[in-house]
Amino acid sequence: MGRLRILHETRYYYERPVGFGPQRLMIRPRDSHALRIVEASLRLFPPGDTRWSYDANGNCICVFQPNGRADAMRVASELIIDRYPAPLVPQRIENPDTLTPIVYSREDRATLEPFIAPVTDDPDAVLLRWLRGLASHRDEPALAFLLRVNDLIHQQFAYQSREEEGVQTPVETLRKRSGACRDLAWLMVEGLRRLGYAALFATGYIHSPNAQIRGAGATHAWCEVFLPDLGWLEFDPTNGLAESPDLIRVAATRTPAQALPVSGAIIGDPGKSRLHVSVDVRLVDEIGRAA
Hints:
The protein contains 6 helices and 14 strands. By secondary structure, it is of the alpha+beta class. The strands form 3 sheets. Strands 1, 2, 3, 4, 5, 13 and 14 form a 7-stranded antiparallel β-sheet that branches. A 5-stranded antiparallel β-sheet has the order 11-10-9-8-12. Strands 6-7 form a two-stranded parallel sheet. Helix 4 (170-176) crosses helix 5. It has helices at residues 106-116, 126-133, 142-156, 170-176, 181-194, 284-290; strands at residues 4-25, 35-45, 48-54, 60-66, 70-83, 158-159, 178-179, 199-206, 220-227, 231-236, 241-242, 247-253, 262-267, 273-283. The relative contact order is 0.23. The radius of gyration is 20 Å and the shape is globular.
């Protein structure tokens, strides 16, 4: 895959000037064997101070403290990255722990326990009944089962972009049979946790080389699952993708609320407010041809 440029801009507009508390920005990927940041720039308004750190999950965090008061706030990130994805290919794995029902070693389970425990409730057993309908036969390879669930959500649930903030509960998504990428990802995360899998809510960007890719033009969300001998694997139920080079991970968290690209408090009464978000991901050589 070629070099990618990612432009991500978030603008808040307020009817009246306000002050600002610390703003938590989660917009920069972490360098790894699969991704290298070639260039990175961040343009912020109002001017202020920044401090970089990693959160408890190892995600890259920028704390931005705007100075003074203003009737707008702007966070604009530009990244040039190289991707080195490892394609998901059939593998012969002799470890019996990679079969269903999933079994983690004692050492792995001690680390993975927070990502196995479900976060949401299912008082009417709506999610449980859906999961029982997915039941695998004993000793089905866990990877085959995950690919089947990923494809089933892609085929049976309608994609629906939503402007409002927040994530639907898995039960809401099941009842509506539709959702945005974050809703479908959260359904898969919480469903797999109830089956004993360690799963994370992953966010970032998606490169859209064809019209079939859903979720372009905004931040994207998918599911990550840990398998013995294979590690953390990416599954995008919105597009039916697995370990795709088009997925560019920024962060992975236990809950969607921990994965907001921009979050923080304002001080004072803003009156009416507006939010505008734009994301553009494209190959660098495509930009050169367009110019």
